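Margin note from the TA: students keep mixing up input and output lines. Inputs are the sequences; the output is the structure of the whole complex. Example:
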Amino acid sequence: MSSIEVRAEAIPNIPFQERPADCADVLYRYSENPVVPARAIRASTYIHNSAVIAHEGAFRGVFRIDNRSRRMQLHAGRSEDGLKWKLDEEPIRFRCDDPEIGRFTYGYDPRLVRIEGRTYVMWCNGYHGPTIGLGYTDDFQTYHQLENALLPFNRNGVLFPRRFRGDYLLLSRPSDNGHTPFGEIYLSHSPDLVHWGRHRHVMAPIREENGWQSTKIGAGPAPIETSEGFLLIYHGVNTTCNGFVYSAGAVLLDLEQPWKVIARSDPYLLTPSTLYECVGNVPNVVFPCGALVDGPTGKLALYYGSADTVVSVAFGYVQDIVRFVLDNRVR
Amino acid sequence: MSSIEVRAEAIPNIPFQERPADCADVLYRYSENPVVPARAIRASTYIHNSAVIAHEGAFRGVFRIDNRSRRMQLHAGRSEDGLKWKLDEEPIRFRCDDPEIGRFTYGYDPRLVRIEGRTYVMWCNGYHGPTIGLGYTDDFQTYHQLENALLPFNRNGVLFPRRFRGDYLLLSRPSDNGHTPFGEIYLSHSPDLVHWGRHRHVMAPIREENGWQSTKIGAGPAPIETSEGFLLIYHGVNTTCNGFVYSAGAVLLDLEQPWKVIARSDPYLLTPSTLYECVGNVPNVVFPCGALVDGPTGKLALYYGSADTVVSVAFGYVQDIVRFVLDNRVR
Amino acid sequence: MSSIEVRAEAIPNIPFQERPADCADVLYRYSENPVVPARAIRASTYIHNSAVIAHEGAFRGVFRIDNRSRRMQLHAGRSEDGLKWKLDEEPIRFRCDDPEIGRFTYGYDPRLVRIEGRTYVMWCNGYHGPTIGLGYTDDFQTYHQLENALLPFNRNGVLFPRRFRGDYLLLSRPSDNGHTPFGEIYLSHSPDLVHWGRHRHVMAPIREENGWQSTKIGAGPAPIETSEGFLLIYHGVNTTCNGFVYSAGAVLLDLEQPWKVIARSDPYLLTPSTLYECVGNVPNVVFPCGALVDGPTGKLALYYGSADTVVSVAFGYVQDIVRFVLDNRVR
Amino acid sequence: MSSIEVRAEAIPNIPFQERPADCADVLYRYSENPVVPARAIRASTYIHNSAVIAHEGAFRGVFRIDNRSRRMQLHAGRSEDGLKWKLDEEPIRFRCDDPEIGRFTYGYDPRLVRIEGRTYVMWCNGYHGPTIGLGYTDDFQTYHQLENALLPFNRNGVLFPRRFRGDYLLLSRPSDNGHTPFGEIYLSHSPDLVHWGRHRHVMAPIREENGWQSTKIGAGPAPIETSEGFLLIYHGVNTTCNGFVYSAGAVLLDLEQPWKVIARSDPYLLTPSTLYECVGNVPNVVFPCGALVDGPTGKLALYYGSADTVVSVAFGYVQDIVRFVLDNRVR
Amino acid sequence: MSSIEVRAEAIPNIPFQERPADCADVLYRYSENPVVPARAIRASTYIHNSAVIAHEGAFRGVFRIDNRSRRMQLHAGRSEDGLKWKLDEEPIRFRCDDPEIGRFTYGYDPRLVRIEGRTYVMWCNGYHGPTIGLGYTDDFQTYHQLENALLPFNRNGVLFPRRFRGDYLLLSRPSDNGHTPFGEIYLSHSPDLVHWGRHRHVMAPIREENGWQSTKIGAGPAPIETSEGFLLIYHGVNTTCNGFVYSAGAVLLDLEQPWKVIARSDPYLLTPSTLYECVGNVPNVVFPCGALVDGPTGKLALYYGSADTVVSVAFGYVQDIVRFVLDNRVR
Amino acid sequence: MSSIEVRAEAIPNIPFQERPADCADVLYRYSENPVVPARAIRASTYIHNSAVIAHEGAFRGVFRIDNRSRRMQLHAGRSEDGLKWKLDEEPIRFRCDDPEIGRFTYGYDPRLVRIEGRTYVMWCNGYHGPTIGLGYTDDFQTYHQLENALLPFNRNGVLFPRRFRGDYLLLSRPSDNGHTPFGEIYLSHSPDLVHWGRHRHVMAPIREENGWQSTKIGAGPAPIETSEGFLLIYHGVNTTCNGFVYSAGAVLLDLEQPWKVIARSDPYLLTPSTLYECVGNVPNVVFPCGALVDGPTGKLALYYGSADTVVSVAFGYVQDIVRFVLDNRVR
């Protein structure tokens, strides 16, 4: 499609739709949204901010489920086509060496990334407040929990899809213990996925009247490597007189020093506009947590929670988004 | 249906639907909700948190109406089948011995209960702030107002349907003078419906991340006596980044010491999920205020305000709910 | 229609519908609302609080557009019938003598008024915070920006349609630098549209539990002169547990001392009730900014932002509204 | 001294100083303040808002002690002259019939009053939040605890020194669960000191910029009966940019309907001015809790907590204060 | 003393002390502070933020007095030496043409300036909230009140001591209706002291952790003209966990375009350090409102409220302060 | 003195006073407090929360200085006797490999600890918000800065005085970006002082009405090793209506798993009581940051900031404090 290279494996059966003729947006909604309804299983009240990954010709996911007590749980799911999902009625039970860490209080907003063949789960994990839980699975049957990467209060932890000079890299968004009214993205280094340091500031909200990313921001799915830099899709929050509005945007991070911003999109990519994004448990939320990318074509299927109620999908080409970010960057 | 006894009079013509085949919930929505639209009368902007009672083979109700100045009023209504309601255009004018107490400022969220043949109205009454108003009627023509039971600031006052060792019992929920971000249920005793004392703490919110009853709770309709205890349906509130979410749950209270909790449901019974519950004057509100129970069968018709805009109904069997509470109790 | 005289020019082709048979309201919605959708142009995310004016047999407007970065801009638009609008893709670029004042940061909630043949634009203008921007156009091609009328923080600035003893009169609503939880209307005098003084208090919110105008109020379109006084349609705000609710009401101001209130409507004229008013960027908003009045008949077409998302229209007769205000005045 | 009659028993040895020559105030400080230092006993960190009463020719008191864990306790004390006090190292252990009520969580800001020969203690009692604790003693050895008079959240409960038509009367100040930013005084009736009702509003703060009683008010010592009405000394709170300032003022209540205000002093009687009132645990606090009155002379010794740290005393004549209130009443 | 020219009239008897040997500060406290105690008159509780001016060889002042109801009043005072002051027991009664404007609600924080031989008083004037009151006197007997210069909410209004191209210039600090947590300085123009416009932003707080001027700023006494620019002494506020701390600093404004900053001192000039600045009605306040300058020598006597309780004085040479600002400017 | 062993090196010339005869406290104030006045150097406004360490027979310190711009800086100091201190006029300039980390924004509340012969400095370091800065010096001439240990927002970072199974241990207190109203202590592990993980919760505030440690807590000086466990002196905060009150208490941590609490003192050890603790920049603060311990005798000299204004010292025996904690532990 162009000279922008998308460094991702091939997913020939990636779910996808081409852009409708009357649409000028680089990221556009699936015509049959939402793909996972609020009550897809008996145990769920809402199913929304969730992550997916390709696996052996099909798709796997870790889903945020607010159960019948509205308690936040992580459930596994699988799909042949990435659009029709079958979710487990029972939450994932992580195996953990240390019972204090392994005692599951709550978990939400999972992300998935494959590094050196192993699939890692990151989520917001309750340990005396929200922090970044880490785990992995090799077979999507057994899930292992590692140490929490960071201290509370933190949310939106996302690993890069490869190591840098031996180090794992983790994006995160330090928070407070409530509905945090601030939030900036940082990057941390680790040699072993247990100890983290060399923390670097990546980017802050853009303070301006009514701006879509003026209150706080947080990483979405794992960064997508391209020849122009790592493409990170992230959420930005605006505060109206009636609460938060969550939109999605994108930024290109440096391939060598990925805490450095190359270009950041001034416009959003997706903002609440449909009934399923504007109405529900938390109105006006578009919250991207998962992404499938087909390297050869650059096709992107972005999974995002809608109104904290259902899972929706948007499509686009990574190359188009990279170009959009470069062309519409924040001055 | 089972060995659980429901100690309520018979209402042969109670409005009711059996549970749909695809539904596993013990409390389920009426298929034609809402039953009272926002503008059922000329004087109304919204009609929502309201109470009903069986009366001489038909049904009577006291309705919260936010009028065309959005001022909160109580209007009487009547229905042959409990589903189609005819409401008075004029608000109820209570007769009161003391003009200072009888001066009506505002009234909302009424409840109804019959004790020893007399029908009592309880509501949130404006007297230098919200407090618990009490009144009664013997004929649904003339309404008499008693002294306010408690000091401001209080809401969600509900009488038990019978006396205990001579005393009337009142549940209430002390508040502050705004959109109170806390709230626990207490029980008070009175020999005469005028003086109240021996206040006992009944139960508190359950503080947990995102829990449906984590911010505050308050009694719904008058408790329903069963062989297992008094079944109290109550509302619980969760605080999201975009405001309060009101759900409904249930608790069994001791038959002898009704301020003692036997079992409290960990899951909710009803949480906002439909368009009429999620959209309106106050989005995401399910607020039960009225209940009809047919003793012989245990059929329950629960009337609840939806989105502070309309009145809806849910159905179920009291026995099922009692069993559900016992089986899914808070640990 | 009556002995109330409406002192406005004729607009024979004013958009209008007669009141539906089943409707008792003096102000009623256009059956085809909204008239301007959120994405009427490529540059828009939302289009809502906007102003219109008759011009040479057709209609012109200045529209608030939250662009693809959700930044607030003013765009010009035109219409043959006042219902189908064509908007410019590019925002209005005001000409200004002083570059410090002319540097456009953001602009929103415009109003339009014609005084002595010249069309003035007033808007909430970003200058170290929101304040009252003033401009004018003679041809709807070139727009000139004057000095900001007042210091920040101010919003909802509206000029009267004529001078009083040589002075221009401006209504405004002093604010703070956020989602201001208070707000009263003042009137200021100016001999030259640059210097303003002799500030007079006009009216305050009416503090009462749940009242539609209990939190803050602000002027809507420019006042409409009638034989009974100036009819000012304004918005009032109520604070629920889930945020602000914006309604519209009306007040009659004295013809000689227009900071004096003759009568103020106790009920609202319009409050959020439809899906397009209750769902969107900011749920539950009815925000009138523009009005067309046909003097000979008294027909009124009121343009109001709905849910901070789209532009809607309501119709009525000025005489009916004047009478309604006089008959339903705040005691 | 005048024709104003002070209806109190004689306390010939009441502590007293005449007004200094250079002082024009009707209530003036004891020259040797404070009378009880912060660490009068080993168990104390601070000793402040406390109550006293004459007893068999000497004086008894109940003192608020913030102990070495800063936990709030009530300790008994005695004095021969009302100025040099000896306090118990151990807190008062109330006897109570119901263990749920008698479980002491915390108690603070006690008041004392003698009714029909029995000495009653009222205090802010912790029962799922602050409420009004009631107890009595006949010998200052054994203290009995009654039911909490009211529901939480309430503070500053004070009994009248006699019954009215058989009823006990209680002043109280409904609150919230924190450092309540509002507060009005109410009066409740009880036939038996257990059940309370017929609640009447007495008075509210006076909202004005910087006014000494603009944020909240609360009763001080038990009302003093005079021929002109009940003289109630109360505290009023102002909110500066650095917190609350507590002052003391007075009001005359009707002898027949003591919830009706005859006259309320526009000026304060005492406001923080000395180092021991402006510096300490909570700066800028004058908080009256105790009073001795010698009926025949009208001499008053007012005990007040200073800066939430020590106990101080002020003197004056009841007749002067009554006259001051009548002459300087709020218009 | 140097080549910096101080353009002020001579005040040969200006109160002054030379800098103590052990002091390196350009502005230093009077050794006998405070000069006006809290209860200098019978009517006062506190006397603090006040203004002074030389008059016929002696000194006159307008004093902020919080009276015995803690209501804020303006009282006139006079002094032979500028240190011993005699204040009127009665507040100033301004004469005003318009009774609505002349109705005195409250007034505080006065400033004085002489323009073309007339002495102007500016103060924070209560008119539906705090705004900028303006008045004048020619004889210090009769005081005339003009229109309020600006809309509420505004504070710290200060006129320049001369006209610019015919215009009066006014500094002010827009506020909200409480203990405003923000505040920037603006300049407005007027041809007639009634109508104000051409508003220009002068300067904002400097946001940095713990900075003395990080929360808000406001003009102090009228600007002092020098050859290097107008020297404006202003207050800056820092927010600690225990409230606001008020310090004093200085800025040089351009002689031609006095809304442009030439240099602004990075360090403060005076910050709360003494007992009379740290303890009182509002702890930790240094609030300059008045200044005397002797042109020939450059001697400055700065009058500042201390702890919102008393009036204090600091001394220095204008030339030293100008040089200090130039040498220690904010980068 | 007893069988409790204090595992610290000998400091024969430790500053010390024996307990006064009339004092029963295990920790008692130095009779000549404060030891460092607010303006000990020309550059200082306040000098308070500071750390000290023995060095070659004398004493060294790192002092928090709020400079003449009230900006927070770290200055080195030295003393022969630990009581008379000489401080550098210039702040410490840390050497750092990475300029982004080494750019000093602000630093405050330093601690010092010696591990394996090297002296480490920990402080609250400004890096896009407060976090834990780490550095070291071998000669008190040159100071080296390491990577920030943790992400913002964090404060009160303190290293243990030795390694555990090869790991360094760090206590810290996650915060938000303001005057954090919450705060719990955590422990993190590091093999290299750069990467930190295996985070464990140590202890939380104790929520109770008015409790000295009810709002937040944070580690004080480096833990002191004894035979009974590590003695950690920490600060606890209570919130009154006029702000935070900072006290000091102590806890014993397990020698093997030092995130486990053996005993925690229910009473405080030190709470604001003197004029220099109650009056100043932030009233009512006792904030321990430094400690000297003489191992053979157990003598302790605790350095604490007072009122965020000066440095004070308290004395005691470690054995007494350990015993006090064991005897007065939180149940």
